[in-house]
């Protein structure tokens, strides 16, 4: 028998979040008259939903990403609210559109590795540029995997990661 906490975080709960989000996003795509396929997954203990184009050359979904992913962040928050309205519980769902977050994650790992190299070589702390919460999490994970420490510093929208020697 599962405990209430397990029921809230188990795969079936996350799959339900993904299905609710997919329905919400399908309606959004219809309203915006955009074509896209919706992929649902569970990644690192959270529902992950992606909107992708059948045609890799089709750039129409990029309008849903916006400059530096700002529109994507807003759509993610709206999607989380739609899920919360249906389930009554806060969602940590991640939304990716046209592979933007996946590509950004790869860029951030390179940035983190450069900072890690400098911290290890010079023994000094390195402050990175301002990042949104998703970006900071990627950097924190890379820094932790390298055996160093990091912390977020500053106030939004200028909150950034500082990588420190161990």
Task: Supply the key terms.
6 strands; 20% strand; single chain; 166 residues; three-stranded mixed β-sheet; disordered N terminus; 49% helix; 2 domains; GMP Synthetase, Chain A, domain 3; Ribosomal Protein S8, Chain: A, domain 1; alpha+beta; three-stranded antiparallel β-sheet
Number of helices: 5
Question: What is the C-alpha radius of gyration, as a whole number of Å?
Answer: 18 Å
Name the CATH homologous superfamily of the largest domain: K homology (KH) domain
* Spatial order of strands in the largest sheet: 1-2-3
Proportion of helical residues: 40-55%
Low-pLDDT regions: 1-8
CATH C-level of the largest domain: Alpha Beta
Mean pLDDT: 90
Count of discrete structural domains: 2
Any chance you could write out the topology, listing elements then pairs?
Layout: H1 4-9, H2 11-32, E1 37-43, E2 46-52, H3 70-87, E3 94-97, H4 100-122, E4 126-130, H5 133-145, E5 149-153, E6 160-164
Parallel strand pairs: 2-3
Antiparallel strand pairs: 1-2, 4-6, 5-6
Tell me what you see in this structure.
This protein has 166 residues and is of the alpha+beta class. It has 2 domains: 4-98, K homology (KH) domain (GMP Synthetase, Chain A, domain 3, 2-Layer Sandwich); 103-164, Ribosomal Protein S8, Chain: A, domain 1. It is built from 5 helices and 6 strands. The chain has helices at 4-9, 11-32, 70-87, 100-122, 133-145; strands at residues 37-43, 46-52, 94-97, 126-130, 149-153, 160-164. The chain has a 3-stranded mixed sheet, with helices on both faces. Helix 2 packs across helix 3 (70-87) and helix 4 crosses helix 5 (133-145). The N and C termini lie far apart (42 Å). The model is unreliable at 1-8 (pLDDT under 50).
């Amino acid at each position: 028998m599962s405990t209430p906490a397990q029921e809230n975080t188990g795969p079936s709960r996350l799959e339900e979040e993904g299905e609710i989000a997919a329905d919400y996003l399908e309606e959004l795509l219809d309203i915006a008259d955009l074509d896209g396929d919706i992929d649902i997954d569970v990644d690192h203990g959270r529902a992950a939903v992606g909107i992708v184009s059948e045609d890799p050359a089709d750039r129409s979904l990029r309008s849903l990403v916006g400059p530096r992913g700002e529109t994507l962040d807003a759509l993610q928050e709206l999607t989380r609210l739609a899920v919360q309205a249906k389930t009554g519980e806060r969602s940590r769902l991640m939304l990716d559109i046209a592979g933007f977050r996946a590509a950004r994650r790869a860029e951030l790992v390179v940035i983190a590795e450069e900072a890690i190299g400098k911290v290890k070589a010079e023994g000094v702390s390195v402050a990175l540029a301002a990042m949104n919460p998703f970006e900071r999490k990627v950097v924190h994970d890379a820094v932790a995997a390298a055996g160093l420490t990091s912390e977020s510093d500053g106030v939004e929208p200028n909150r950034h990661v500082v990588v420190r020697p161990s």
